[in-house]
């Protein structure tokens, strides 16, 4: 089953195989002996995908910043914030088989991967932009200048989309409700504070969700 579903105009969910076969505008795919190298235009897209293995070999997104983005000064933070609020953001996520005995991240970590998807969201969309700005502003105001990490979670978006659009098929003739692995990305900001105790002791971790409503 080929899937390239569009949720409103600001979110797309595309199977990895389809993405490689028919890359979207501003992307090109290079075939290598070991797999594929995906090229993108950083001026138009923000790619946050780590290298990964697939049934087609190793997939490398050439200009990706990775799922965890590190920032060391105000300029880097400002640049990253601008990209999040103006570009289309690309992430790799996995739909996994729900074993019904676990919930949340623990379940996804143990579950069998059914399909991998490239998920993109339009950071410039007013609704997404508002949520992103609010979450980033809340994070900064809550950590009072020290180093911090913030996880931006898309699990609720994916679950809402899957409930309406996606029936993931296993190798058995049954339909299952997927749980999602890697449905988030992380920003890590390192301040120049001499004694960064809240960060050292793990008190400066934050998280916010992107939602449909």
Give an account of the 3D structure.
With 213 residues, this protein is α/β, with parallel strands linked by helices. It contains six helices and 16 strands. The chain has helices at residues 16-21, 74-86, 104-110, 126-143, 155-165, 197-200; strands at 4-7, 11-15, 27-31, 35-40, 45-47, 52-54, 57-61, 68-71, 88-97, 113-122, 148-153, 168-169, 175-176, 178-181, 184-189, 205-209. The strands form four sheets. Strands 1, 2, 5, 9, 10 and 14 form a six-stranded mixed beta sheet that branches. A hairpin with a 3-residue loop joins strand 3 (27-31) and strand 4 (35-40).
Secondary structure blueprint with pairings:
Elements: E1 4-7, E2 11-15, H1 16-21, E3 27-31, E4 35-40, E5 45-47, E6 52-54, E7 57-61, E8 68-71, H2 74-86, E9 88-97, H3 104-110, E10 113-122, H4 126-143, E11 148-153, H5 155-165, E12 168-169, E13 175-176, E14 178-181, E15 184-189, H6 197-200, E16 205-209
Parallel strand pairs: 4-7, 5-9, 8-15, 11-16
Antiparallel strand pairs: 1-2, 2-10, 3-4, 6-7, 9-10, 9-14, 11-15, 12-13
């Amino acid at each position: 089953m080929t899937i390239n579903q569009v949720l409103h105009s600001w979110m797309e969910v595309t199977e990895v195989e389809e993405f490689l076969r028919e890359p979207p505008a501003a992307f090109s795919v290079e075939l290598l002996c070991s797999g594929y190298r995906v090229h993108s235009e950083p001026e138009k897209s923000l790619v946050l995908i780590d290298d990964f293995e697939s049934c087609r070999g190793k997939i490398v997104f050439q200009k990706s910043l990775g799922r965890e983005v590190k920032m060391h000064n105000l300029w880097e933070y400002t640049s990253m914030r601008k990209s999040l609020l103006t570009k289309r953001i690309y992430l790799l996520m996995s739909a996994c088989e729900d074993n019904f005995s676990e919930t949340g991240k623990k379940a996804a970590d143990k579950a069998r991967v059914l399909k991998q998807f490239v998920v993109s969201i339009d950071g410039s969309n007013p609704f997404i932009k508002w949520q992103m700005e609010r979450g980033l502003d809340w994070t900064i105001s809550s950590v009072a200048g020290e180093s911090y990490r913030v996880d931006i979670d898309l699990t609720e978006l994916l679950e809402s989309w899957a409930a309406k659009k996606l029936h993931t098929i296993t190798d058995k003739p049954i339909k299952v409700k997927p749980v999602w692995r890697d449905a988030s990305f992380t920003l890590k900001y390192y301040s120049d504070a001499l004694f960064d105790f809240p960060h050292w002791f793990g008190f400066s971790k934050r998280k916010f969700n992107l939602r449909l409503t």
